[in-house]
Amino acid sequence: MDENPGLVEPFITEHQLTLNAIPAYNYVTQTLKVNGIPQNWIVDADSVIRLKGLGYDSSEKWEQGMRDAIEKCKSGGAATSGASGSSASGS
Description:
This protein is α+β, with helices and mostly antiparallel strands. The chain folds into two domains: 34 residues, no CATH class; 56 residues, no CATH class. Helices cover 32% and strands 15% of the residues. It contains three helices and three strands. Strand 1 and strand 2 form a beta hairpin. The radius of gyration is 13 Å and the shape is globular. The C terminus is likely disordered.
């Protein structure tokens, strides 16, 4: 989340992150009413939020939990709390 989307891509590149960043500042601040960062969402192809999590843990456990949650969502299941500070959401 950043008011200047031009800052996001260099940050992702510099930190060698492998994630998708969506330039959605207004959506995040006005619709989702984000009250803390970082936050993570898994959103399915029907725009249903399957998982919403607050925070980040640099351990492999957090990353693997997110990967597992993404794979579960891809296969049609609801994500479970597989990452630190995460909770399932959506239908």
